[in-house]
Amino acid sequence: MHALSVDYGQRHRFELDAATRTAEALGVVRHTIVSVDLAAIGGSALTADMDVPKDRDLTTSEADIPVTYVPARNTVLLSLALGHAEVIGAADIFIGVNAVDYSGYPDCRREYIEAFSRMANLATKVSVEGQLRFTIHTPLIDMTKADIVRCGTALGVNYGLTHTCYDPNKEGISCGRCDACQLRLQGFSEAGVQDPIEYQ
């Protein structure tokens, strides 16, 4: 198993630190961090000088796409993963998109993943030459956050190593109020599991 993380110009590095800790704990063959400056494009509260929304009513999240949507982020991330997979000869690419509690992001939907999968097998040398057929796996796509917490707990995931918050303080402590924190807290609560991370 190889892990790939992307430093895309997001407003903090705590999620990359968490990815490194998690990769080490899982004993991956290699954890690669690739840099792409999506902050140069902007257009998102995660990459530009915009306020991260707090205390939103998440029952309306599917109606409008929030300002935390990063333009084309999953397309960029999956393209990098596809290139990496082609180089190392891996046919299976896994991404943790979630369409149930997805905060309204269009690139977390099943139809998007299916379209990218078709493109992946048209756009790569190893696919065209018949050496490899890529499959994009989305094991979390139809799960609620509570289901994800329960499944991870059963598999022994150390959630204390993870980071979810869009707008932590300088020490990396989660705000507890952004969409990501609210969905995480709701998932742990509904799963009946104590969230091991600290909140402001």
Could you characterize what this model shows?
This protein is of the alpha/beta class. It has a single domain (2-191), classed as HUPs (Rossmann fold, 3-Layer(aba) Sandwich), CATH 3.40.50. It is 35% helix and 9% strand. It is built from six helices and four strands; from the N terminus they run βαβαβααβαα. The strands form two sheets. Strands 1-2 form a two-stranded parallel ribbon. The longest helix has 16 residues, at 73-88. The protein is globular and about 50 Å long.
State the strand order across the main sheet.
1-2
| Architecture (CATH level 2) name | 3-Layer(aba) Sandwich
Number of helices: 6
CATH superfamily: HUPs
Q: How much beta, percentage-wise? A: 5-15%
User: Mean pLDDT across all residues, rounded?
Assistant: 94
Helices and strands: which structural class? alpha/beta
CATH class: Alpha Beta
Might you state the CATH topology name? Rossmann fold
Spans where pLDDT lies below 50 across 5 or more residues: none
Measured as a percent range, the helix fraction is: 25-40%
Q: Largest sheet at a glance? A: 2 strands, parallel
Global geometry: globular
- Along the chain, the helix and strand elements come as EHEHEHHEHH
Instruction: State the domain count.
Output: 1
Number of strands: 4
> First CA to last CA: what distance?
34 Å
Radius of gyration over alpha carbons? 17 Å
